[in-house]
Design brief:
single chain; alpha/beta; seven-stranded mixed sheet; 12 helices; Bact_exopeptidase_dim_dom; Xaa-Arg_dipeptidase; Peptidase_M20/M20A_hydrolases; Peptidase M20 domain-containing protein 2; dipeptidase activity
Length: 393
Protein backbone atom coordinates (compact mmCIF):
# COMPACT_ATOMS: atom_id res chain seq x y z
CA UNK A 1 0.00 0.00 0.00
CA UNK A 2 1.34 3.45 -0.92
CA UNK A 3 1.71 6.19 1.71
CA UNK A 4 -1.53 7.83 0.60
CA UNK A 5 -3.32 4.56 1.22
CA UNK A 6 -2.50 4.58 4.93
CA UNK A 7 -3.67 8.19 5.24
CA UNK A 8 -6.91 7.29 3.48
CA UNK A 9 -7.39 4.30 5.77
CA UNK A 10 -6.90 6.40 8.91
CA UNK A 11 -9.40 8.98 7.65
CA UNK A 12 -11.92 6.24 6.87
CA UNK A 13 -11.75 4.97 10.45
CA UNK A 14 -11.66 8.46 12.00
CA UNK A 15 -15.19 8.44 13.43
CA UNK A 16 -14.76 4.99 14.97
CA UNK A 17 -11.41 5.96 16.48
CA UNK A 18 -12.87 9.19 17.87
CA UNK A 19 -15.72 7.31 19.55
CA UNK A 20 -13.31 4.76 21.06
CA UNK A 21 -10.91 7.44 22.29
CA UNK A 22 -13.66 9.51 23.92
CA UNK A 23 -15.33 6.48 25.52
CA UNK A 24 -12.11 5.24 27.12
CA UNK A 25 -11.08 8.73 28.26
CA UNK A 26 -14.50 9.44 29.79
CA UNK A 27 -14.54 6.14 31.70
CA UNK A 28 -11.13 5.83 33.42
CA UNK A 29 -10.61 2.39 34.97
CA UNK A 30 -7.77 1.03 37.10
CA UNK A 31 -5.73 -2.16 36.73
CA UNK A 32 -7.69 -5.32 35.90
CA UNK A 33 -10.95 -3.37 36.13
CA UNK A 34 -10.83 -1.98 32.58
CA UNK A 35 -14.15 -3.57 31.60
CA UNK A 36 -15.54 -0.61 29.67
CA UNK A 37 -12.28 -0.08 27.77
CA UNK A 38 -12.06 -3.79 26.95
CA UNK A 39 -15.67 -3.98 25.76
CA UNK A 40 -15.34 -0.76 23.76
CA UNK A 41 -12.32 -2.06 21.84
CA UNK A 42 -13.89 -5.46 21.25
CA UNK A 43 -17.11 -3.85 20.00
CA UNK A 44 -15.09 -1.65 17.65
CA UNK A 45 -13.34 -4.69 16.22
CA UNK A 46 -16.54 -6.66 15.88
CA UNK A 47 -17.94 -3.87 13.73
CA UNK A 48 -15.20 -4.51 11.16
CA UNK A 49 -16.11 -7.28 8.72
CA UNK A 50 -13.77 -10.28 8.38
CA UNK A 51 -11.86 -9.60 11.60
CA UNK A 52 -11.73 -12.44 14.09
CA UNK A 53 -11.83 -10.81 17.49
CA UNK A 54 -11.59 -11.40 21.20
CA UNK A 55 -9.25 -9.84 23.77
CA UNK A 56 -6.66 -10.57 21.12
CA UNK A 57 -7.74 -9.69 17.59
CA UNK A 58 -5.95 -11.07 14.54
CA UNK A 59 -6.30 -10.65 10.80
CA UNK A 60 -4.45 -12.37 7.96
CA UNK A 61 -2.75 -15.71 7.42
CA UNK A 62 0.75 -17.09 7.03
CA UNK A 63 3.84 -14.91 6.86
CA UNK A 64 5.19 -12.78 9.67
CA UNK A 65 3.30 -11.43 12.69
CA UNK A 66 3.13 -7.81 13.88
CA UNK A 67 1.40 -7.00 17.18
CA UNK A 68 0.14 -3.60 18.31
CA UNK A 69 -0.19 -3.19 22.09
CA UNK A 70 -3.28 -1.29 23.27
CA UNK A 71 -2.98 -0.04 26.85
CA UNK A 72 -6.09 1.45 28.45
CA UNK A 73 -5.81 1.47 32.25
CA UNK A 74 -6.05 4.75 34.16
CA UNK A 75 -4.44 6.21 37.28
CA UNK A 76 -6.07 6.42 40.73
CA UNK A 77 -7.80 9.79 41.21
CA UNK A 78 -6.20 11.26 38.06
CA UNK A 79 -8.03 9.32 35.36
CA UNK A 80 -6.18 9.15 32.03
CA UNK A 81 -3.27 11.28 33.18
CA UNK A 82 -0.88 9.00 31.28
CA UNK A 83 -2.86 9.18 28.06
CA UNK A 84 -3.61 5.48 27.74
CA UNK A 85 -6.80 6.33 25.88
CA UNK A 86 -4.54 7.65 23.12
CA UNK A 87 -2.34 4.55 23.28
CA UNK A 88 -5.36 2.31 22.78
CA UNK A 89 -6.68 4.52 19.99
CA UNK A 90 -3.35 4.70 18.14
CA UNK A 91 -2.84 0.93 18.26
CA UNK A 92 -6.42 0.27 17.17
CA UNK A 93 -6.05 2.70 14.27
CA UNK A 94 -2.73 1.21 13.12
CA UNK A 95 -4.18 -2.30 13.35
CA UNK A 96 -7.18 -1.35 11.21
CA UNK A 97 -4.99 0.40 8.63
CA UNK A 98 -2.73 -2.66 8.28
CA UNK A 99 -5.84 -4.84 7.93
CA UNK A 100 -6.90 -2.61 5.04
CA UNK A 101 -3.44 -2.91 3.47
CA UNK A 102 -3.44 -6.71 3.75
CA UNK A 103 -6.88 -6.90 2.16
CA UNK A 104 -5.79 -4.67 -0.71
CA UNK A 105 -2.50 -6.47 -1.37
CA UNK A 106 -3.61 -10.04 -0.63
CA UNK A 107 -0.14 -10.65 0.84
CA UNK A 108 0.63 -13.23 3.53
CA UNK A 109 1.09 -11.84 7.01
CA UNK A 110 -0.80 -11.43 10.25
CA UNK A 111 -1.52 -8.32 12.29
CA UNK A 112 -2.72 -8.46 15.89
CA UNK A 113 -4.19 -6.05 18.38
CA UNK A 114 -3.46 -7.10 21.95
CA UNK A 115 -5.43 -5.56 24.80
CA UNK A 116 -3.12 -4.68 27.70
CA UNK A 117 -4.50 -4.23 31.24
CA UNK A 118 -2.70 -2.97 34.34
CA UNK A 119 0.41 -1.32 32.87
CA UNK A 120 0.39 1.23 35.68
CA UNK A 121 0.25 -1.27 38.52
CA UNK A 122 1.75 -4.76 38.16
CA UNK A 123 2.52 -4.93 34.47
CA UNK A 124 -0.12 -6.63 32.35
CA UNK A 125 2.43 -7.31 29.61
CA UNK A 126 4.60 -9.27 32.05
CA UNK A 127 1.80 -11.75 32.55
CA UNK A 128 1.18 -11.89 28.80
CA UNK A 129 4.88 -12.57 28.19
CA UNK A 130 4.64 -15.45 30.66
CA UNK A 131 1.64 -16.83 28.82
CA UNK A 132 3.50 -16.78 25.48
CA UNK A 133 1.62 -13.91 23.84
CA UNK A 134 4.78 -12.69 22.06
CA UNK A 135 6.48 -16.01 21.26
CA UNK A 136 5.72 -15.97 17.51
CA UNK A 137 5.77 -12.17 17.07
CA UNK A 138 8.22 -10.62 14.60
CA UNK A 139 7.70 -7.12 16.00
CA UNK A 140 5.59 -5.40 18.65
CA UNK A 141 4.75 -1.73 18.21
CA UNK A 142 3.08 1.00 20.25
CA UNK A 143 3.29 4.73 20.96
CA UNK A 144 3.07 6.80 24.13
CA UNK A 145 2.06 10.47 24.52
CA UNK A 146 3.98 13.15 26.37
CA UNK A 147 3.83 16.94 26.51
CA UNK A 148 4.44 18.64 23.16
CA UNK A 149 6.38 21.29 25.09
CA UNK A 150 9.50 19.09 25.00
CA UNK A 151 9.72 19.31 21.20
CA UNK A 152 10.61 22.20 18.89
CA UNK A 153 7.80 23.83 16.94
CA UNK A 154 6.64 21.55 14.14
CA UNK A 155 8.17 18.36 15.57
CA UNK A 156 5.49 15.78 16.40
CA UNK A 157 7.58 13.51 18.61
CA UNK A 158 10.47 11.05 18.77
CA UNK A 159 10.92 7.75 16.96
CA UNK A 160 13.40 6.69 19.66
CA UNK A 161 12.75 5.98 23.30
CA UNK A 162 14.63 4.00 25.91
CA UNK A 163 13.54 3.59 29.54
CA UNK A 164 15.03 2.35 32.80
CA UNK A 165 14.61 -1.11 34.26
CA UNK A 166 12.91 -1.21 37.66
CA UNK A 167 12.44 -3.77 40.41
CA UNK A 168 9.93 -3.29 43.21
CA UNK A 169 9.59 -4.91 46.61
CA UNK A 170 7.73 -4.68 49.92
CA UNK A 171 9.47 -4.91 53.30
CA UNK A 172 7.55 -5.94 56.42
CA UNK A 173 9.09 -5.63 59.89
CA UNK A 174 7.48 -7.40 62.84
CA UNK A 175 8.24 -6.55 66.45
CA UNK A 176 6.41 -6.71 69.76
CA UNK A 177 3.81 -4.22 71.04
CA UNK A 178 4.08 -2.55 74.45
CA UNK A 179 2.81 0.56 76.21
CA UNK A 180 5.14 3.36 75.11
CA UNK A 181 5.15 4.98 78.58
CA UNK A 182 4.52 2.20 81.10
CA UNK A 183 6.88 -0.47 79.75
CA UNK A 184 8.58 0.49 76.47
CA UNK A 185 11.43 -1.91 77.28
CA UNK A 186 9.07 -4.81 76.76
CA UNK A 187 8.44 -3.80 73.15
CA UNK A 188 10.33 -4.42 69.93
CA UNK A 189 9.80 -1.38 67.73
CA UNK A 190 9.02 -2.26 64.10
CA UNK A 191 8.82 1.42 63.17
CA UNK A 192 12.37 1.93 64.42
CA UNK A 193 13.45 -0.83 62.04
CA UNK A 194 11.59 0.86 59.17
CA UNK A 195 13.17 4.23 59.94
CA UNK A 196 16.64 2.68 60.24
CA UNK A 197 16.21 0.88 56.93
CA UNK A 198 14.84 4.00 55.23
CA UNK A 199 17.76 6.05 56.55
CA UNK A 200 20.25 3.42 55.39
CA UNK A 201 18.82 3.69 51.89
CA UNK A 202 19.50 7.43 52.05
CA UNK A 203 23.13 6.69 52.90
CA UNK A 204 23.34 4.12 50.10
CA UNK A 205 22.20 6.75 47.58
CA UNK A 206 25.54 8.56 48.05
CA UNK A 207 27.32 5.62 46.43
CA UNK A 208 25.01 4.77 43.54
CA UNK A 209 25.60 5.87 39.95
CA UNK A 210 24.00 9.04 38.53
CA UNK A 211 21.74 6.99 36.26
CA UNK A 212 20.36 4.85 39.11
CA UNK A 213 17.40 5.64 41.36
CA UNK A 214 15.98 4.30 44.63
CA UNK A 215 12.61 5.58 45.84
CA UNK A 216 10.21 4.38 48.49
CA UNK A 217 7.62 5.09 51.14
CA UNK A 218 6.65 3.90 54.61
CA UNK A 219 3.11 2.57 54.13
CA UNK A 220 2.43 1.44 57.68
CA UNK A 221 4.11 2.36 60.95
CA UNK A 222 1.80 1.88 63.90
CA UNK A 223 -1.71 2.71 65.03
CA UNK A 224 -1.24 4.95 68.08
CA UNK A 225 1.56 7.09 69.48
CA UNK A 226 1.38 5.43 72.91
CA UNK A 227 1.87 1.91 71.57
CA UNK A 228 5.23 0.52 70.44
CA UNK A 229 4.51 -0.45 66.80
CA UNK A 230 4.70 -4.18 66.23
CA UNK A 231 4.44 -3.91 62.45
CA UNK A 232 5.83 -1.58 59.79
CA UNK A 233 5.63 -1.85 56.02
CA UNK A 234 7.65 -0.12 53.31
CA UNK A 235 7.54 -0.27 49.52
CA UNK A 236 10.50 0.56 47.29
CA UNK A 237 11.45 0.74 43.65
CA UNK A 238 14.98 0.45 42.27
CA UNK A 239 15.77 1.76 38.77
CA UNK A 240 18.83 1.42 36.54
CA UNK A 241 19.61 1.53 32.81
CA UNK A 242 19.41 -2.28 32.60
CA UNK A 243 17.35 -4.82 34.48
CA UNK A 244 20.50 -6.67 35.54
CA UNK A 245 21.92 -3.52 37.14
CA UNK A 246 18.59 -2.81 38.83
CA UNK A 247 18.62 -6.28 40.37
CA UNK A 248 22.20 -5.83 41.57
CA UNK A 249 21.30 -2.52 43.21
CA UNK A 250 18.17 -4.09 44.69
CA UNK A 251 20.36 -6.65 46.49
CA UNK A 252 22.29 -3.79 48.10
CA UNK A 253 19.02 -2.18 49.18
CA UNK A 254 17.81 -5.42 50.74
CA UNK A 255 20.99 -5.48 52.86
CA UNK A 256 19.97 -2.13 54.36
CA UNK A 257 16.74 -3.64 55.68
CA UNK A 258 18.45 -6.81 56.85
CA UNK A 259 20.82 -4.68 58.91
CA UNK A 260 17.92 -2.64 60.32
CA UNK A 261 16.16 -5.80 61.45
CA UNK A 262 19.27 -7.07 63.20
CA UNK A 263 19.91 -3.73 64.88
CA UNK A 264 16.39 -3.48 66.31
CA UNK A 265 15.69 -7.14 67.03
CA UNK A 266 12.78 -7.30 64.59
CA UNK A 267 11.86 -10.09 62.26
CA UNK A 268 11.45 -9.11 58.63
CA UNK A 269 10.52 -10.43 55.22
CA UNK A 270 10.85 -9.00 51.74
CA UNK A 271 8.24 -9.64 49.06
CA UNK A 272 9.32 -8.99 45.44
CA UNK A 273 6.59 -7.08 43.58
CA UNK A 274 7.89 -7.67 40.07
CA UNK A 275 10.24 -6.04 37.62
CA UNK A 276 9.92 -3.93 34.48
CA UNK A 277 12.84 -4.51 32.14
CA UNK A 278 14.57 -1.62 30.45
CA UNK A 279 13.06 -0.80 27.06
CA UNK A 280 15.43 -1.79 24.25
CA UNK A 281 14.41 0.12 21.13
CA UNK A 282 14.83 -1.55 17.77
CA UNK A 283 16.92 0.89 15.74
CA UNK A 284 15.74 -0.17 12.25
CA UNK A 285 12.13 0.35 13.39
CA UNK A 286 13.00 3.78 14.82
CA UNK A 287 14.52 4.82 11.50
CA UNK A 288 11.65 3.33 9.50
CA UNK A 289 9.09 5.29 11.52
CA UNK A 290 10.95 8.54 11.00
CA UNK A 291 11.25 7.82 7.27
CA UNK A 292 7.54 6.99 7.03
CA UNK A 293 6.50 10.16 8.84
CA UNK A 294 8.75 12.30 6.65
CA UNK A 295 7.13 10.64 3.65
CA UNK A 296 3.73 11.71 4.96
CA UNK A 297 4.98 15.27 5.34
CA UNK A 298 5.55 15.25 9.12
CA UNK A 299 8.66 15.92 11.18
CA UNK A 300 9.78 13.63 14.02
CA UNK A 301 13.08 13.21 15.83
CA UNK A 302 15.14 10.03 15.94
CA UNK A 303 17.59 11.10 18.60
CA UNK A 304 19.34 7.83 19.50
CA UNK A 305 22.03 9.62 21.52
CA UNK A 306 19.71 11.34 23.98
CA UNK A 307 19.56 10.32 27.63
CA UNK A 308 17.45 7.38 28.73
CA UNK A 309 13.94 8.44 29.76
CA UNK A 310 13.88 8.26 33.61
CA UNK A 311 10.71 6.17 33.68
CA UNK A 312 9.84 2.49 33.29
CA UNK A 313 7.31 0.42 31.36
CA UNK A 314 6.41 -3.23 30.92
CA UNK A 315 6.96 -2.70 27.19
CA UNK A 316 10.57 -3.22 28.26
CA UNK A 317 9.75 -6.83 29.15
CA UNK A 318 8.31 -7.28 25.67
CA UNK A 319 11.52 -5.86 24.17
CA UNK A 320 13.43 -8.74 25.80
CA UNK A 321 11.02 -11.18 24.13
CA UNK A 322 10.77 -9.88 20.54
CA UNK A 323 11.79 -6.85 18.44
CA UNK A 324 9.90 -3.95 20.01
CA UNK A 325 9.30 -0.26 19.62
CA UNK A 326 7.64 2.49 21.63
CA UNK A 327 7.56 5.82 19.87
CA UNK A 328 6.70 9.07 21.64
CA UNK A 329 4.34 11.76 20.38
CA UNK A 330 3.65 15.16 21.87
CA UNK A 331 0.18 16.42 22.74
CA UNK A 332 -0.90 19.94 23.78
CA UNK A 333 -1.13 19.89 27.58
CA UNK A 334 -0.12 23.44 28.58
CA UNK A 335 3.28 22.10 29.58
CA UNK A 336 1.89 19.46 31.96
CA UNK A 337 3.62 16.08 31.98
CA UNK A 338 2.23 12.55 32.38
CA UNK A 339 0.81 11.55 35.77
CA UNK A 340 -0.53 15.03 36.48
CA UNK A 341 -4.06 16.42 36.39
CA UNK A 342 -3.03 18.89 33.69
CA UNK A 343 -1.90 16.10 31.39
CA UNK A 344 -5.21 14.30 31.89
CA UNK A 345 -6.97 17.36 30.54
CA UNK A 346 -4.69 17.39 27.51
CA UNK A 347 -5.14 13.68 26.83
CA UNK A 348 -8.88 14.09 26.35
CA UNK A 349 -8.76 17.02 23.95
CA UNK A 350 -9.68 16.98 20.27
CA UNK A 351 -6.27 18.46 19.44
CA UNK A 352 -4.54 15.48 21.06
CA UNK A 353 -6.75 13.08 19.14
CA UNK A 354 -5.71 14.82 15.91
CA UNK A 355 -2.04 14.35 16.84
CA UNK A 356 -2.80 10.70 17.52
CA UNK A 357 -4.27 10.27 14.03
CA UNK A 358 -1.12 11.61 12.37
CA UNK A 359 1.09 9.14 14.21
CA UNK A 360 -1.19 6.22 13.37
CA UNK A 361 -0.18 6.67 9.73
CA UNK A 362 3.49 6.05 10.55
CA UNK A 363 2.71 3.17 12.90
CA UNK A 364 0.69 1.43 10.20
CA UNK A 365 3.31 2.00 7.51
CA UNK A 366 6.06 0.46 9.65
CA UNK A 367 3.93 -2.51 10.67
CA UNK A 368 3.00 -3.27 7.09
CA UNK A 369 6.62 -2.90 5.97
CA UNK A 370 7.68 -5.55 8.48
CA UNK A 371 5.09 -7.90 7.00
CA UNK A 372 5.87 -7.16 3.36
CA UNK A 373 9.59 -6.29 3.15
CA UNK A 374 11.82 -9.34 3.71
CA UNK A 375 15.07 -7.37 3.83
CA UNK A 376 13.73 -4.90 6.36
CA UNK A 377 12.27 -7.68 8.51
CA UNK A 378 15.68 -9.34 8.58
CA UNK A 379 17.32 -6.07 9.69
CA UNK A 380 14.79 -5.79 12.51
CA UNK A 381 15.50 -9.35 13.61
CA UNK A 382 19.28 -8.92 13.43
CA UNK A 383 19.18 -5.80 15.60
CA UNK A 384 17.14 -7.66 18.20
CA UNK A 385 19.59 -10.58 18.20
CA UNK A 386 22.60 -8.30 18.69
CA UNK A 387 20.96 -6.79 21.78
CA UNK A 388 20.45 -10.14 23.48
CA UNK A 389 24.00 -10.46 24.75
CA UNK A 390 23.57 -7.24 26.70
CA UNK A 391 20.56 -8.42 28.69
CA UNK A 392 22.65 -9.75 31.58
CA UNK A 393 24.86 -6.68 31.97
Amino acid sequence: MASAGFQTSVRRHRQLLSEVNNKIFSNPELDYKEFTAHDTLVAALQSQRDIKTSFEAEFGSGGRVVTYNAEYDALPELGHACGHNLIATSSLGAFLAVVDALKESDRPGRVRLLGIPAEEDIGGKIRLVGEGAYKDVNACLMMHPTSSSVYPEGVLGDAYDRTLGITAFKVTFRGKPAHAALAPWEGVNALDAAVAGYTSIGVLRQQIRPDERISGIIKEGGAAANIIPDKAVLEFGVRAPTLARAKALEARAWSCFEGAAEATGCEFDILPLGAYADLRPNFPICQAFQDAMVGFGYQVQNNTTRATTPASTDQGNVSYECPSWQGIFGIPSNGAFPHTAGFAGGAGSEASFERCLLNIEGMAAVGYRILSDDKFAEEVKKNFETQKWDQER
